[in-house]
Fold this protein.
Amino acid sequence: MIPKSLREQSGIVPGEVEISLDGAAIRIESVAADDLVEEDGLLLLPTGGPELDADAVRELRLADQR
């Protein structure tokens, strides 16, 4: 079980996940959807997970650098 605070921070939503080893760490990622959405002539991946504002992106980048 992944704690709720970590799921919310990382954007992991209920559903299938992919688990892999990354050196001495375990990496858990949501499985990407195969569905594409066409918008203004562009093929896009459907949105998912929490909406990120500039502060949230900054915090994620800083946390990744620590």
Q: What stands out?
A: The longest strand covers residues 17-22. The chain has a mean pLDDT of 82. Residues 1 and 62 are 25 Å apart (CA to CA). The helical segments are 4-10, 54-65.
